[in-house]
Structure to design on (188 residues):
């Protein structure tokens, strides 16, 4: 049981170091992708003023930031679940180490009474919680990555639309590009 106590203490210390190091250098909070601007030289025209074009591009930018923000929160939730699951595992090991029975020495009859009922229930609860947190954390992390990918898609769509608006031959062509951009970004 001494080995389990040492292992549990080592796991608890490792958890503390992991959490502190992760928080000190947290790099999962990704900034929103950048979008090309129209530039100062672009003025628009009477049929399609620059303000209307800027409004369409800004709506896509806002959608991209919203999607990226969701990705940030899902990634953070995944990290917190991983930390808590690791903590549950460390707690199970510590409980087993503190309340476990030592084997008999020499010719003495071994102690086979097992763990106390409260310790057994606590271990069962923590083990189940660790499993749920592991699954939930993995799902949240994957969802965060999916959101980051969608934000990149909106970035690419917006950059393509900006270029297409600047190259549009008519105001109607530019308006069609902006409408298509809104439709596609709203679907993500």
């Amino acid at each position: 049981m001494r080995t389990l106590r040492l292992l549990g203490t080592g796991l608890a210390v490792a958890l503390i170091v992991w959490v502190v190091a992760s928080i000190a250098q947290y790099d999962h909070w990704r900034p929103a992708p950048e979008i090309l601007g129209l530039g100062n030289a672009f003025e628009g025209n009477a049929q399609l003023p620059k303000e209307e074009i800027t409004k369409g591009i800004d709506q896509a930018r806002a959608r991209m930031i919203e999607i990226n923000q969701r990705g940030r929160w899902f990634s953070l939730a995944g990290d917190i679940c991983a930390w808590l699951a690791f903590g549950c595992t460390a707690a199970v090991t510590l409980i087993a180490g503190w309340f476990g029975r030592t084997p008999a020495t020499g010719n003495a009859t071994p102690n086979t009474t097992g763990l106390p009922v409260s310790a057994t229930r606590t271990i069962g609860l923590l083990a189940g919680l660790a499993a749920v947190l592991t699954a939930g954390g993995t799902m949240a992390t994957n969802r965060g990555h999916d959101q980051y990918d969608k934000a990149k898609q909106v970035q690419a769509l917006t950059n393509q639309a900006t270029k297409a608006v600047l190259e549009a031959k008519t105001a109607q062509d530019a308006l069609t590009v902006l409408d298509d951009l809104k439709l596609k970004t709203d679907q993500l």
About this structure: The chain has a mean pLDDT of 85. The longest helix spans residues 117-167.
